[in-house]
Amino acid sequence: MKDDQTQNTGQLYFRLCSDHLSIEAIPKTSIRINFQKMREQSVENHELVMWTPHFVILKNQSGQEITLRPDGRMVVRKSTSEAIARQSAAEMLAFLLKSFVL
């Protein structure tokens, strides 16, 4: 599934989404996020915009929206640059690994 737009950095693979405005971040290792715990506790420095059993949408303090799936895949939208979107995804993964991984 690796193509010209997929890049491997740190703990995540990054791919430019087809709209060319969003970045998809895919964890290199298999993880499982506890969405129920996330719903019950506040997510530090993020606003919970939407919660379903299948995905969560969070908004960070910079206004970026991060759509998160239970397997750790993320789509970062409304970012001012690709570098900032990548940094936001890396920070989110570190936070998830610390607090919400089963």
First and last CA, distance: 26 Å
Q: State the helicity in percent bands.
A: 10-25%
Shape descriptor reads globular
Per CATH, the architecture is 2-Layer Sandwich
Q: Which consecutive residue ranges, at least 5 long each, have pLDDT under 50?
A: 1-6
User: Which strand-content bin applies to the residues?
Assistant: 25-35%
Mean pLDDT score: 85
Discrete helix count = 2
Q: Strand count, sense and closure of the main sheet?
A: 7 strands, antiparallel
What is the CATH class?
Alpha Beta
- CATH third-tier fold name: TATA-Binding Protein
- Topology pattern, helix = H, strand = E: EEEHEEEEH
Major sheet strand order:
1-2-3-7-6-5-4
Radius of gyration, in angstroms, nearest whole number:
13 Å
Question: Helices and strands: which structural class?
Answer: alpha+beta
Beta strands, count: 7
Would you write up a description of this structure?
- This protein has a single domain, classed as TATA-Binding Protein, CATH 3.30.310.
- 24% of the residues lie in helices and 32% in strands.
- The chain is built from 2 helices and 7 strands, in the order βββαββββα.
- A 7-stranded antiparallel beta sheet has the order 1-2-3-7-6-5-4, with helices on one face.
- A hairpin with a 4-residue loop joins β5 (56-60) and β6 (65-68).
- The model is unreliable at 1-6 (pLDDT under 50).
